[in-house]
Amino acid sequence: MAGTSNNMAALHDSFKKFAMHGDTASTGNEMNGKNWSKLCKDCKVIDGKTVTSTDVDILFSKVKSKSARVITFQEFKMALAELAPKRFKGKSQEEALASIYALIAGKDPTNAGVTVAYKGGGVDRLTDTSKYTGTHKERFDESGKGKGLSGREDLAENTGYVANYKGAGTYDEKVQK
């Protein structure tokens, strides 16, 4: 095949991307079982009929070293070689392997189900600080930036007078007379 080396490079690239997915410390040279399952789901290797998630998990345990928790790229290719005839029944070993490589090569991990911030309708109205009233209004300055601790605390004046008393500071003047 003419495109085999290019196909293998794309396959290795996809292996690295999936191996590093969700793990900041990963080098991309070894893949754990969770990312192996994700690769099989995202790349449609698991079809729910001939290949299930259970088959994929069992195969992962079979190809990895006894004490290891990860597989290398070589073990990854062995797993695909075993999975290919099961996924593509009726094709020869070489055709099935080429088909399964084509499913995976060049693919990236998807972020399906990731929560994105919603901005619309009621959310804008509820988060607009210029529309706040009462005590909530006191927590923000004119630009809408929070005042921090001073906006949340009732800072008491220890003058001895009741709050909002209009004659504050006049006692000494009255006693003098």
UniProtKB/TrEMBL annotation:
Biological process (GO), any one: microtubule polymerization
GO MF term list: tubulin binding
Keyword Cytoplasm appears in the UniProt entry: yes
Name by which UniProt lists this protein: Tubulin polymerization-promoting protein family member 3
Main location: cytoplasm
Lineage top rank: taxon: Eukaryota
Family: Belongs to the TPPP family.
Keyword terms of this UniProt record: Cytoplasm, Cytoskeleton, Microtubule
GO-annotated cellular components: microtubule
InterPro entries per UniProt: EF-hand-dom_pair, TPP/p25
Pfam assignment, any one: p25-alpha
